[in-house]
Amino acid sequence: xxxxxRKILPNxxxxxxxxxxxFEDPDLAKKVVEKINEVGLNGEELTIEITESMELHNSxxxxxxxxxxxxxxxxxxxxxxxxxxxxxxxIKEIPLDMIKIExxxxxxxEQDDYAKAFIKMISELxxxxxxxxxxxxxxxxxxxxxxxxxxxxYIQGFYFDRAISLEEFETKYIFNSxxxx
Length: 181
Prior knowledge:
6-stranded parallel sheet, globular, 7 helices
């Protein structure tokens, strides 16, 4: 589907969540590359999201799979950063492209100085390491303004839209509006 959408929106990327179970397959990278070749995508058009709770830092096989995926220009995002297994070692040990800050830090962002400081600290660390940052769970304009003021470019949440069907997505964002805004 992404291949078709890219005809209209050439810079469109697709992100796919992967589970810890999938990383138990030593042939995962090979299978992913075969699939993107089969459908006619390039590696740079795909981001694979992994959660930090996968504890990838304990698995050499997982690290090897990620390195192989990255050799095909596939991007790796660490999803839900800040949950129970938080460790700055994840950022150091896994060759990441993006850190996605968990939505629980956004819930009461307007009043929560800890959440603001956490998001700002992780954002600054990521920038210093050459990584992108995405804040998840933005639902209100005030939250959006706070994270934009912090200089965060990638923002995700219901403020922009709820989960919608493929048909609704195409109608709203691909065909009728001339692209995603």
